[in-house]
Design a protein that fits this description.
With 295 residues, the protein is an alpha/beta fold. Helices cover 36% and strands 16% of the residues. Strands 1, 2, 3, 4, 5, 6, 7 and 8 form an eight-stranded mixed beta sheet that branches. Helix 1 packs antiparallel against helix 10, helix 2 packs parallel to helix 5 and helix 8 runs parallel beside helix 10. The longest helix is centred in the last third of the chain and has 17 residues. The radius of gyration is 19 Å and the shape is globular.
């Protein structure tokens, strides 16, 4: 039921740091090789259903969460359409900031949270599979401002013990591989330079069973893309595909969504946790995604 799905989201315990170490990465690689030898390895495939509208960069396109207006006899009293992806990964970054920042202030990601949703269209079920929280160490504005800590809840100790952005991307890839969302543990196989033609890269994306969900285009374009460009960090191609939940919210309910809180308010749902905590924001965005899929 819808209440059970929302309770499952609320009961997920926050994880302060990534639990995936290089040793874990090696362990997963060994497990995958063993499964291949035993003939148990299966490739996860999904057809790609993309919204053709693009953001300010042609490398960034918005996906779609399918919704249905028809009523069904499912456990929630609704029948949702078969989704274009079997998994959605909710992301909501937090970044360095200061009060009254200048236009040239270089924001750096300091919290990289993810919430994994699995969609079973046949059973009309949406379930939370896992969540991950990685603290990232900034290299330009190394000392967090009091304003930033108060706003995000991220402390200086969190970032000092965190990892560089390049390592965070590696840890995320390991996490995706662990859950079967990518079938190759070598992140280098998903870098743009690995593909000779755009069609090859598009084909590789077609085979992936997931898309990210963000609250607007800012997380991936304004933060991740720009920081990677400034620091000459290569990122995998799957970061070029995401669902803009604000756009999907508007298309589903025919109302403007100006913020996470306004979407929750429209659905008569309350925010759980601390607003502007990356993980808590991601969990609440997942609440909204579950509701859109059900509606």
């Amino acid at each position: 039921s819808k209440a059970q799905l929302q309770n499952q989201l609320q009961q997920q315990p926050p994880r302060r740091h990534s639990s995936f170490t290089p040793q874990d990465h090696a362990q997963y690689s060994a497990q995958q090789q063993q499964q291949q030898q035993q003939g148990l390895h299966t490739k996860r495939r999904s057809s790609l259903d993309m919204d053709r509208s693009s953001s300010s960069s042609n490398h960034f396109v918005g996906g779609v969460l399918s919704s249905s207006d028809s009523c069904g006899n499912g456990s929630s009293g609704r029948q949702f359409k078969k989704q274009p992806f079997r998994f959605y990964v909710v992301v909501d970054f937090e970044a360095t900031c200061q009060e009254n920042s200048s236009p040239d202030y270089e924001h750096e990601i300091i919290e990289f949270p993810l919430v994994l949703l699995k969609v079973d269209s046949r059973r009309q079920q949406v379930s939370v599979v896992d969540q991950l929280r990685i603290f990232v160490r900034p290299t330009v504005n190394e000392k967090l401002t009091d304003f930033c800590t108060k706003l995000t809840g991220v402390t200086q100790e969190d970032v000092d013990s965190g990892v560089l952005l390049s390592e965070a991307l590696t840890q995320v890839h390991t996490w995706l591989f662990h859950h079967g969302l990518v079938t190759i543990d070598d992140m280098g196989q998903f870098m743009p330079q690995h593909y000779k033609h755009y069609d090859q890269m598009r084909c590789a994306l077609d085979k992936l069973p997931f898309a990210f969900i963000t609250d607007g285009p800012y997380d991936f374009y304004s933060f991740l893309h720009r920081e990677c460009e400034r620091k000459s960090i290569q990122k995998p191609i799957y970061y070029s595909r995401w669902v803009n939940i604000r756009k999907t919210f508007h298309d589903t309910y025919r109302t403007k969504a100006f913020s996470l809180l306004s979407m929750l308010n429209h659905l008569k749902m309350s925010f759980k946790g601390k607003h502007h905590s990356g993980l808590d924001d991601s969990i609440n965005i997942a609440h909204i995604a579950v509701r859109i899929i059900e509606d």
